[in-house]
Design brief:
single chain; 229 residues; alpha+beta; 5-stranded antiparallel beta sheet; 59% helix; 10% strand; elongated; membrane; Claudin; tight junction
Length: 229
Amino acid sequence: MSRAQISALVFGVGGFGALVAATASNEWKVTTRASSVITATWVYQGLWMNCAGNALGSFHCRPHFTIFKVEGYIQACRGLMIAAVSLGFFGSIFALFGMKCTKVGGSDKAKAKIACLAGIVFILSGLCSMTGCSLYANKITTEFFDPHYVEQKYELGAALFIGWAGASLCIIGGVIFCFSISDNSKTPRMGYTYNGATSVMSSRTKYHGGEGDFKTTNPSKQFDKNAYV
């Protein structure tokens, strides 16, 4: 069991869970604190719904009813986050098949290839999430620091930071999976051959035979009639 693969699986699956949470969250952007103090209301916007709440505790969300009225950058972020979640799911499946501790996946060479594929998929998932969150954050900061923008200004929501963290975990896990192939090539399986048991008599025979002439004496000739006279 490889510790590097276990740590890579933990990073990858943890990043995948963070990407799912960020995609489903409605806190991609929130209203600024200055406007919230004046109006006592908070507005949260996500990829799928717009939510508003007030100081009394009431909270209401309204989904985006149509795709065509949604701004272009939101649609792009939707596609990127859906791609990131899908790639993270398949990366987790490939990672389980590529682990050394599992019995599925074939030989060690096949498992190494599957683990490398899982690493590449995790890296692509992290890049998609990083791109989507950065695109959304760039739109928010551009509007916030634009002096000519007179509409409601927003700040970065918690979902963006969760998405960035999940993307980083996926990329780290993917890199570890890709480098785990070198561990498989450096530690090949050792083979042992059984030569069979050798008797003591045969080994002695070989030893004496290697020294020179091997003479055998008849034990019956040592005890003839003259020995007792």
